[in-house]
Amino acid sequence: MHRIALSTARAPVAAAAAAAYYGSRPREAACDPQLVPHPERHDRRGELLFGVPKKGRLHEKIVGMLKGAGLEYKREARLDIAHCRDLPVSLVFLPAADIATYVGEGDVDMGITGEDIIAESEVDVIELMRLGMGKCRLSVQAPAGSTQDPRQLAGKRVVTSFPVLTKKYFAGLETGAETKVKCISGSVEASCGLGLADGIVDLVETGTTMRAAGLEEVSVIMHTETVLIANPHSHHKELIELLRKRISGFITASRYMMVTYNVPRHLLHVARQITPGKKSPSIQPLEDEAWVAVSALVEKSKAATIMDSLEAAGATDILLSAIHSSRMGD
Ligand SMILES: Nc1ncnc2c1ncn2[C@@H]1O[C@H](COP(=O)(O)OP(=O)(O)OP(=O)(O)O)[C@@H](O)[C@H]1O
Ligand SMILES: O=P(O)(O)OC[C@H]1O[C@H](OP(=O)(O)OP(=O)(O)O)[C@H](O)[C@@H]1O
């Protein structure tokens, strides 16, 4: 567990949650002064609020992951909140860039977002787990051939969607004038070509966007990945831990597959070396005493090679199956 920066108050996400809640009730109920949404409403219902990116590159993967972790919910069209069926959890669909702020300073108990956004938002959240997706880096970029030294951009015009991190980075390089950092919301890579910037700070994964815009990487500010975060002031510590374990179980399961095969007993020592399993393989005797059945976890990325090796070692009836979830420990 890793703690990031500092925090304070609670913000009214619960109002949105409550609005959605009353939206599904008769109109009179929504107008009843006794039932006017207020920040405590959600606490009273006792539900954990879980912030999920509402669109963009992280959305589909995260929704798939939450379903794989057993969070069953139905999201009504146009509603940004969905109540889970079997757990006192509501998913709140928010812009990825705002989730860290809601978790650090609002009523949202947990969330999923990038480490870049957490750093930019300067909030106090608990990083529970890396999710192995959204891996990229935040880099200083400049028109190809113009400079290889970020100090040459200090004091000049730099455009970005990460003004806090950009200002901090260039503040450490400035010897004279302050860098003129301008914030725009997207397509930052266009800003040098359109005469707005001398350099930019933007995310790079494959480098395709950067190169297509005629830019090159000058320096890396930070590496980032998508993470599961929690509000340090949440009252739902046990539920947070339950969800963390479920998500961790799903992620581990998605990295492994189960291989089962039969092998002559006298060749078992060879097969065991090929499939040592996570702790050890499970071995069952067969009717024919000369044979045993083996099952073992294998990494998905190595499964095909392992099957080739097992066959070459004399194993037969080799089957590979997917694992949908797990509790294996971290
Ligand atoms: N090219 C990329 N490769 C990997 N991860 C990325 C990439 N671009 C962005 N991310 C991660 O996804 C997060 C959200 O990205 P971003 O704010 O660009 O949203 P988006 O998915 O493009 O949707 P939107 O349409 O709202 O801009 C980033 O903060 C970063 O952590
Ligand atoms: O190195 P690459 O693989 O090309 O990825 C990097 C691009 O991905 C992100 O943009 P996105 O596609 O989210 O669009 P945006 O510029 O509108 O945010 C990021 O802002 C870069 O522009």
Automatic annotation (TrEMBL):
Residues 253-324 form the Histidine biosynthesis HisG C-terminal domain. Pathway: Amino-acid biosynthesis; L-histidine biosynthesis; L-histidine from 5-phospho-alpha-D-ribose 1-diphosphate: step 1/9. SUPFAM superfamilies: GlnB-like (SSF54913), Periplasmic binding protein-like II (SSF53850). It is found in: Cytoplasm. It holds the Pfam family HisG. GO terms for cellular component: cytoplasm. It catalyses: 1-(5-phospho-beta-D-ribosyl)-ATP + diphosphate = 5-phospho-alpha-D-ribose 1-diphosphate + ATP. Keywords: Amino-acid biosynthesis, ATP-binding, Cytoplasm, Glycosyltransferase, Histidine biosynthesis, Nucleotide-binding, Transferase. Transmembrane segments: none annotated. PROSITE patterns: ATP_P_PHORIBOSYLTR. It is an enzyme of class 2 (transferase). Its EC number is 2.4.2.17. The keyword Nucleotide-binding applies. Its main location: cytoplasm. PANTHER family: ATP PHOSPHORIBOSYLTRANSFERASE, ATP PHOSPHORIBOSYLTRANSFERASE ATP-PRTASE. This is ATP phosphoribosyltransferase. The lineage of its organism: Eukaryota, Sar, Stramenopiles, Ochrophyta, Pelagophyceae.
